[in-house]
Design goal:
Layout: E1 18-29, E2 32-43, E3 47-52, H1 58-65, E4 73-80, E5 83-86, H2 92-102, E6 103-106, H3 118-128, H4 133-146, H5 162-175, E7 180-184, H6 192-207, E8 212-216, H7 220-224, E9 228-233, E10 236-238
Helix pairs in contact: 3-4, 3-5, 4-5, 5-6
The chain binds adenosine-5'-diphosphate (ADP) and magnesium ion (MG).
Magnesium ion (MG) is lined by residues 58-59.
Domain ABC transporter: 20-245
Protein name: ABC transporter ATP-binding protein
Keywords: ATP-binding, Nucleotide-binding, Transport
């Protein structure tokens, strides 16, 4: 059994080496090039927003970066605790271990289990990795408290507001000690004030630990909270500032 990760902040990495690095990613669905040569570095302690029109490849990129989906071409390298590790070359079983141990996920709808309480939802991934129930629930309660949900541990998901439920999803994603958090439209179902609160929770809980956040969003206000925004178009990253070309 592994030790329970704690929410105690660790000093951010001073290394400029990317925590997660993608190079030359290509992913096709029949004639559609969902990813057409995407390269991207995500550093420790950094929040990166991915924007772009519907169908531009944002979700596909997120899924390939996170080892959910294998690319047809290209490399995804994670700076693992043991050193650099190519996750694109791994089999499904190993990739799922990396996802479980290194990554956390927050989706538009939290994908929380309505029959379970807030604390049980957050503790679940810890139980699945072999932690004892008492320790898992104590750790889960700590994360709920850190995200402003103290006193709501025993509520079922239906007894929470949309913003509170999203903070439960963030607590669940953080509880296993994920070093990269992936969020796909995490505020897509929320009003703008709640959206700002959820972004604060996402950013604070990730960056304070020197971890990284990759967030797909349509909302410029969400992107503005991130240190960097990349724009996708037709499966490619749009160059940040195209130099003026004299004609
Ligand atoms: N499982 C799939 N099967 C076929 N086409 C897909 C699949 N997933 C995505 N696509 C296509 O790939 C392109 C990029 O999709 P996606 O990454 O979901 O874009 P976004 O998240 O930016 O809306 C779109 O043209 C979409 O229709
Ligand atoms: Mg999408």
């Amino acid at each position: 059994m592994t030790s329970t990760p704690t929410p105690t902040p660790i000093p951010p990495s001073t290394s400029t080496q990317a925590l997660l690095s993608a190079a030359g990613l290509v992913k096709t669905y029949g004639p559609t090039r969902a990813l057409d040569g995407v390269s991207l570095d995500v550093r420790a302690g950094e929040a990166v927003a991915i924007m772009g029109a519907s169908g531009s490849g944002k979700t596909t990129l997120l899924h390939v970066l996170a080892g959910i989906l294998p690319a047809d071409q290209g490399a995804v390298t994670l700076q693992a605790r043991s050193g650099p590790m190519r996750i694109d070359g791994l089999g499904e079983r190993e990739r799922s271990r990396v996802r479980r141990e290194e990554f956390g996920f927050v989706f538009q709808q939290g994908l929380l289990i309505p029959e379970l309480t807030a604390v049980e939802n957050v503790a679940l991934p810890l139980l699945l990795t072999g932690h004892a129930r008492d320790a898992a629930e104590a750790h889960a309660a700590q994360w709920l408290g850190a995200l402003g949900l103290g006193g709501m541990e025993q509520r079922r998901i239906g007894q929470l507001s949309g913003g509170q439920a999203q903070r439960v999803a963030i607590a669940r994603a953080q509880a296993t000690g994920a070093r990269v958090l992936f969020a796909d439209e995490p505020t897509g179902a929320l009003d703008s004030a709640t959206s700002a609160d959820v972004m604060t929770a996402l950013l604070d809980s990730t960056l304070a630990q020197g971890h990284a956040l990759v967030v797909v969003t349509h909302d410029p206000q969400v992107a503005a909270r991130c240190g960097r925004t990349i724009r996708m178009r037709d499966g490619r990253v749009v160059p940040e500032e195209a130099p003026e070309v004299a004609r």
